[in-house]
Amino acid sequence: MNRPCLSSGRAGQTRIGRRRLAGSRATRLSTALAAVAALALAGFSTSPAQASGQVNMAETGTAAAAAPDNPNAPGFWYGTDSATIPITSRPPYREPVVSGRPPYGGYIGMAGNWSRWSGCSGVLVWSPADSKAANTNFSTYHKGIGTGVYWFMAGPGVDPHYTGTTAEASAWGAAQAAKTLRAIGGLNVTYKVVWMDVELPGNAPNYTPAPDNGWNNVYTSTCSGRVKTPFVAASLDRAVLNGYSSYLTAHSSYTPGVYSSPLIWSSIFGTGSASSIPNLDEWTYTDGTRHISPPPIGWCVPGTSTCARFFGGVTRSSVHALMWQWSGGGGITNGVGDFDQIDTNHVK
Q: What value does the mean pLDDT take over residues 183-195?
């Protein structure tokens, strides 16, 4: 994986609900909040922790049909994330439920949640059983990635030491990376990419106290859930990612990646330089399907126009497009859990 230079900036930036364009700020804010509320009432979920009850934003839009890759292309695996999905086959384990029962190619679980770490309560979604099965396939049968992790990320608005400076925002990101590495120390993690889970809302107060995880608003305190300032500069948001990434690469052999989606990404980082991450690995959840079969080939579900959509300047053809939560996330319920497609061709 890359060791990115995560520079940030403000030029040309727009942000949903916070854009400084004439006559647009209040309208976009109310529209975004209405969308969040509607989706929450509908029970939608997009996080890797979808099966645990987290509410997130769904997205619309249909990807153009694409010619599928070779279904047996080396380096592509199928796996699951977050809450346990029972794997009932004998080793080498097979992907649960999915047609054709391909080899179980990996498990990605939550190493930590900023809210739980900060003492605000909050869930930790981890499946020892699925992690063990994935690691058995990886170490004994040389199949898949084994176990990977994500950290449910906090923006600058819930930093207990918030000052409004990029230096403090970077330090806040570094502190989260340090905690991630401490958590990884107690787990059998084999996958090289550590995912920053960057999303909103936080399903307050059940999952996190801050509905936007501190990306778009500054709160009176880390755990209060009460907004003090309804704006966070995109440069500060980006500084959190920069600090996390820099600390992770400086203090471990892991490399950083981001779990998010096009809509959520632009709502936090805008469309300017702060949003650009063409050299950072990505895990997306759009566009997904509520069907579990057939599984995708390449980045598209065969016979449909459903294809993965990445963000921040990364496309399906990029070497940094690494994972797609193709069913069970993105506000789409399949009745079983979260299923992922994993490309290991570019993870070094």
A: 97
